[in-house]
Amino acid sequence: MSVAIITGSAGLVGSEAVRYFAALGMDVVGIDNGMRAKFFGEDASTRWVRDQLVQELPNYLHYDVDIRDTEEISRIFDRFGSEISLIIHTAAQPSHDWAASNPTVDFTVNANGTSVMLEATRKFASEAVFIFMSTNKVYGDLPNYLPLVEHKTRWEIATDHPYAAHGIPETMSIDQTMHSLFGVSKVAADVLVQEYGRYFGMKTACFRGGCLTGPNHAGTQLHGFLAYLMKCAVTQTPYTIFGYKKKQVRDNIHSADLIRAFHEFYKQPRSGEVYNMGGGRHSNCSMLEAIALCEQITGKPLQSSYVEQNRRGDHIWWVSDLSRFQQHYPQWKLQYDVPQILQEIFEFNHDRWSHSCATPVSVTSLAS
User: Fold this and answer.
1) Can you tell me the distance from the alpha carbon of 166 to that of 320, in angstroms, rounded to the nearest whole number?
2) Which residue in 188, 31, 5 sits closest to 99, CA to CA?
3) Nearest residue to 256 via CA among 212, 205, 220
4) Which end of the chain offers a freer environment for a tag, N or C, measured as fewer CB atoms within 10 Å?
């Protein structure tokens, strides 16, 4: 029986991957020690997701282990050895705001933790496919120097620019730019994953995500744009928007679409690959557009305020060019767009949020 090891297995992408590959008949080993609650507070805890997976999936085994713990990770990999055919590494400190508060923890989790996972894979399961959940923050704020044009509800790239049709490709430089400390730790991990593919011939890929989202997303003040925006709309929690006239743009990819992309790569893996992976031109929105959709779905006005100063290193406009992945895997296509994603988030969480309204707090906008 093939074994899939999934880190961050109680998180948005991790839990979606657990269910998906368990449904394919694989034995799934989850590694998640609940650090999300330590990063963002108990409201962001994913323990309830972990408990669901353990109770509902007979072919799921959970380890409450820190990915930085070389000895424990090696012990897990040694136990399953050559039966391991897939590693999906999603565990991370995911917020560039939080990273500034504790750069050491951010770097050790994101960079050192990835090193531990790669080395365990090389030693115990070198033929396995290794998928790393990277981020568009590896490009730093370089996208902000693109020729952007202000429209009524959004910033948009100039129509005569090469990126206008499909978005930002993987050929954009990651140098000479301000990354944020989170971006730096993810760059280190990203390049390391590529190098293990090229240097050791391992089957590795970095998926540089835009805004990852879905109904299971435990959106918080510092991470989880659409989920937290909808939560604020439902619970009438004040939401603070930072800069860019509320017109900053993100593409948003549903976790289910992302996991299907992982599956395509798993079936036909390559070495040292890099893919920009988001909603692309099919699924993107500005802050103003997202607010309007939330108000339409909930029937309530969002309680919001605006601060002129933008967040340091924050993107004004990000749309992923998906062409490279679609060229390699033409069977894969996005199924969700932003209105569908927000509607699903609302329907899945409305009752739970309505019965557990938290004390109102403000939130940083468009945290990916």
Assistant:
1) 7
2) 188
3) 212
4) N
- The three-class DSSP label of residue 31 is strand
Range name among 173-177, 210-214, 275-279 with the lowest pLDDT average: 210-214
The letter for the amino acid at 181 is L
Does residue 240 fall inside a structural domain?
Answer: yes
Q: Could you identify the residue written with the tokens 């003040």?
A: 221
- pLDDT tens, residue by residue, 44-63: 778 889 999 999 999 999 99
Rounded CA separation 133/139 (Å): 15
Element (H, E) at 365: none
Non-local (6+) Cβ contacts of 69 within 8 A are 116
Q: How many CA atoms lie within 13 A of 329 on its CB side?
A: 20
Q: What residue type is assigned to position 263 of the chain?
A: H
Tell me: pLDDT of 313 over 90: no
Whether 302 shows a pLDDT value over 60: the answer reads yes
Q: Is the dihedral of CA 53, 58, 60, 65 positive or negative?
A: positive
Rg (CA), the chain: 19
pLDDT at 97: 81
The pTM of this model reads 0.92
In degrees, to the nearest 5, what angle opens at C-alpha 261 toward C-alphas 292 and 145? 55
**C-alpha 27, offset from chain centre:** 24
Asked if the structure places residue 368 within a domain, the reply is no
Element at 63 (helix H, strand E): strand 60-63
DSSP state of 138: G
- pLDDT tier, 221 (very low <50, low <70, confident <90, very high otherwise): low
Q: Which helix (H) or strand (E) holds 243?
A: none
Q: Which residue range forms the structural domain that includes residue 50?
A: 3-355
Number of domains in the chain: 1
Residue 66 sits in a domain whose CATH number is 3.40.50.720
What is the model's pLDDT at position 80?
Answer: 98
Residue 365 lies in a domain: no
Q: How confident is the model at residue 42 (pLDDT cuts 50, 70, 90)?
A: confident
The reply to whether 280 falls in a domain is: yes
Q: Residues 234, 350: contact at Cβ < 8 Å?
A: yes
